[in-house]
Write a structure and sequence with these properties.
The protein contains one helix and five strands, in the order ββαβββ. By secondary structure, it is an alpha+beta fold.
């Protein structure tokens, strides 16, 4: 498994990122597409995030080396 960073960009300079595991980038992108609507997770700094993807202006997927 590889690690990927999913980034969610909102209006202004607000963004949220989380790390997921996937076999490859195509699977990471599919996970992003499959998880639309309400998103909730706790990041590595123990911060809880809860938002609706309809408020997201840009999504990005980046492989973590």
């Amino acid at each position: 498994m590889q690690k990927f960073q999913l980034s969610y960009y909102f209006e202004g300079d607000l963004s949220v990122a989380r790390v997921i595991e996937a076999e490859d980038q195509a699977e990471a992108i599919q996970q992003l597409k499959d998880n639309t609507g309400l998103i909730e997770f706790t990041d590595s700094e123990d911060t809880y995030h809860f938002f609706d993807t309809k408020d997201v202006k840009l999504f990005s997927v980046k492989k973590i080396l």
